[in-house]
Amino acid sequence: MSSSANKCDLNYLEERTWDRVYLKQKCKELGVEGEFNAYQVRLFRSYVRVFCLLHIGVTAIHCILISTLSEHKKYVFFDVGIYSGSCLILVLILSINFWEKLTEKHTWIMFVSSALACSALVGGDLTQSLYHHYYNDWGCGSFYDTYAVYITYLFLPILCIQGAIFLGSMISIMYIVLDMTVLSSRSTDGAAAIVSMVLKIVQYLSINMLGIYCRVLNDMVVRSSFIDRHQFIKEDISLRNAQRHEKILLDSILPSQFSELLQKDIKKRITLSTKLTSTPINNFNVFRRSMAIQIHSDVSILYADVVNYTHLTTTLTVEKLVTTLHDLYARFDLAAQYYSVQRIKFLGDCYYCVAGLMHPDPDHANNAVALGFAMIAHIQEVRASQNLDINMRIGIHSGTLYAGVIGESKLQFDVWGPDVTIANVLESTGVPGAVHISEAVLRNLGARGEYSIQKGPEKAMKDPHLQKHRIVTFLIVFSSQYVPDFVTDAQMKLSFKDDASLSRSVSTVLNEELREEYRNMPVTRINFKALYSIWVKKESRYPMKKSMDFCLTFYDTDKESAYLKQKDYFFRYYMLLAWATGLSLVFVEIFDTMNTDCKYCFVIDFCIFLSLTILAFIAWYKWICWIIYNKKNKPHTYNCVSCIIFCIHEKIVGNLIVRICTYLFAIALNWVLITLIVVDCRYEQFIQQYIDERIYHYEDNEINQICFHPWVVTEMLSLMICMTFTFCHIPFLLKTSVALGQVFVYFILIFIKFDFVFHHSTTTNPWFPSEFSHGFIIIIAFVTMYFKARQTEFSKKVCFSWRVQLEKKQNDALMTNRSIIILLNNILPSHVVDIYLSSLSQNELYYESYKMVSVMFAMLTNFEINLSSLQILNEVITQFDVLLLYYREFYAVEKIKIVNCTYMAACGLDVNFAGSTSKPLKPRSAGKGRHSHSGEDHDEVVFVMASFALDLMQTLASCNKAYNGIVKGYKLSDGKITIGISSGEIMAGIVGASKPHYDIWGDPVNMAARMEMTGQSGHIHVTEESANILESYGIQANYRGQTFVKGRGLLPTYFLGIDDDFNFIRVKETRKPIYAHRSAYISMGSTYI
């Protein structure tokens, strides 16, 4: 409710969801009306079980009492026979409802059996009364009158509320007719008889009203639980479905043991960030992060390189180049899967993978060699089909490596180690069309006689790196007989596991799970554990412990407190019941004391009625306002008085203490009315006059005006006890205690205070003490409502417990989902993640074309890879990744990959700037300050890339300064970096049939790599095109001279001018960057992690 000083608006959205009409419409909209009706059948079947046991107990106790307490036992044999016979008939009739298939198919049987059961019960009761009236001339009252009405609404299997109202009304009419028949023949005072009949009618109206209320309330609670379950299960299934797709994508990129480890780390960070949202983290905490690295021995590493790739980048269009690579790499991925070889990654034309990595494989060398031959066969097919001058050079080495993930951004699985470097050198020194292997691979080949093995090429013998490690090499010449035909079949498909759940629609899964959930919804406390067994089987192998004690209180106090502190949107319903009950009591009190001298009674009656009316008005005022204005879409601002009423209503609904006080206040008001009725009795005068009548054998009608009508008070008190149990979201133990307190107080009135009055009232059986009839009626009312309220409370608590459990599941799933999404977005660009999760198939090509992108390769010079240096490399790469956070504005810098100790990044890969894409994308909003005009040339990406490269150099220098001498084992050789930059038209996207990896292709990528390879430590080496752009932005570019570039020949290249403080040397600029100031700051000086 939004409010100002004196006015406010009405917010009825939450309350409306608890409106019976809304709930019924919602069930129909969600298509759960059928399941609701089926559950109703099960629910009422459980009610019948409870009622049969209850009625057998009531009948047995009643028969025992009248048999033992009646003064002349010979007169009660008929009564015992009637009660026992009607009980037996009733149970037999209702037992048909336990035939589940029959009643589910023909629900009308439930109503018919209920009507017949009521006929048996009421017929026996009326027969007993009329028998004694006509045969023995005794005026015995009916025993099961109110009881029959109660059980009609509360226990009998009548699905439609109209049927229950009809049956309850018919029972009430029959008993009213009985009373009229008996009174007309026995009473000589017409006025007293009329008053008695009016009170009886009020009594039955009140009882029927209570029954209708209980039915409506039960219907609303069940429908609400159905809607909640539908919504929660729908969200849960959607979440699990999304999570499953995300998990499949994630596991296809990273091995599961690494992805799970990273997910745990992300979850910890999410939890920490929620607790310490603004706590700065010290720089050295970066060093304390765990590094996800594993050591793998006895594996074979395969490096494959496309020969003549550089020439392809200059002769083919970028789109044609990427399509060719996709065709080629998809074939490689399929073959790698067939031979159980783990693809690591590819760099342009370089494809490398490892055999025996994820699972120990004694045939790792054979599989790696077989894969090498398959690759050669595939490239020969592509060469022939597309008329391309390409070939394959392959190197394989067996040994030990380090595998894992380093850095913080764009995480990728990679391998390192001396043996990895050896495999790379074997590839570069190999011969096209042959597999170049080391002696370690040859030793592991089980069937070396199948291959034509030659000595290694002379180039390999002279290689200093191979000589340093004393590697002897061999060549295995390719032959098509080494490759099975089906491995080179271009139509070979991935053999993914058949997951039926993936092919089914979400709606199908939703309907199946909902039906299963509804079938397992509990109806009695006995099924409580069964409810949780569904979750237990799915989530734990340990049985769930008992959750509630005998008083239906959760053992978990926090859970119990959360349950009780729920908003009580049924407040208006039970306040209406309290008001109607109070009105009935006022009416009874007025008629019962109309001939007395109670002068203050009318004032008290008025005050009580006014108080209950005010509470009922407060409870229904919001609904009235919504009906008048908001439901008709009439905007309305409410005045101060309405706002106060709204606030009071919210306070009662939302505050447990206020709600309990309101509950006790309503009960107390009704008890005041009962007190007025009984205290106005002139007890001594009643005793004297009653004795005189019996001694002198006369009948004085004034005796009915001296004291209250005992049976009227008893029936109204039973109504109050029932009302006590109907209040929602009041502690069940408190309701039971209040009801027991009322029973205890009334027993004092019956057996002590007004024992003479109750003893000489009409009894229910011949010579049976009337006070015991009154007491037993009260006990029956208490027990009946206790068991009914207990079932209702249990159902509500189970639904709440189910909701809490499902919310916990959803929170855990959301946390997992969030960690997966964070991880995926830290591996692939967010728009690529969306495409992959929504529409991209497993082996489909996705690409984006860009007219101007700047590419950078930055390599740590003279950096030897071993386990200790990997820790250092991880910290340095992490610092580089942190620097990316400051390059997210305007033209963002994207990290592409890490290859050994080379950092690759690009600027200008904004999907808003893409010329074309293979899949339609939703336009994404540009970042703060970002411009995306169609006429813009985007040359500024080169300036941003150069600025990032300079920050990398400064960051590395800060690392050396910060950690040298502080962190044990920290050493970065010469502590310098070699950087190459080129720019131009590229293609970005995902190629291959597995392990999606966002990469870029084109001449600028190749040239940037060559600039890094031919560059010098501590310099930024750029092409002539990039140098001209940077000079226009005021950065000095020093001509280096003609530099030989593999595949391109001699080209003019430049070094950017950098001073000793790692600032660009400035020259006169002809244009300025679009932005005024970039917020970049070197990562070592930042506390943002």
UniProtKB/TrEMBL annotation:
Q: Which InterPro entries match?
A: A/G_cyclase, Nucleotide_cyclase
Catalyses: ATP = 3',5'-cyclic AMP + diphosphate
The processes (GO biological process) annotated in the record are: adenylate cyclase-activating G protein-coupled receptor signaling pathway; cyclic nucleotide biosynthetic process; intracellular signal transduction
Instruction: Provide GO CC annotations from the record.
Output: plasma membrane
The UniProt transmembrane annotation reads 47-69, 75-96, 147-178, 190-213, 569-588, 600-621, 656-679, 732-752, 772-789
Q: What is its main location?
A: membrane
Span of domain Guanylate cyclase: 300-427, 844-1012
Q: What is its EC number?
A: 4.6.1.1
SMART domains, alphabetized: CYCc
Q: Which PANTHER family match?
A: ADENYLATE CYCLASE TYPE 1 (PTHR45627), AT30656P-RELATED (PTHR45627:SF23)
Name of the protein: adenylate cyclase
Query: Could you tell me which species this protein originates from?
Result: Drosophila kikkawai
The lineage is:
Eukaryota, Metazoa, Ecdysozoa, Arthropoda, Hexapoda
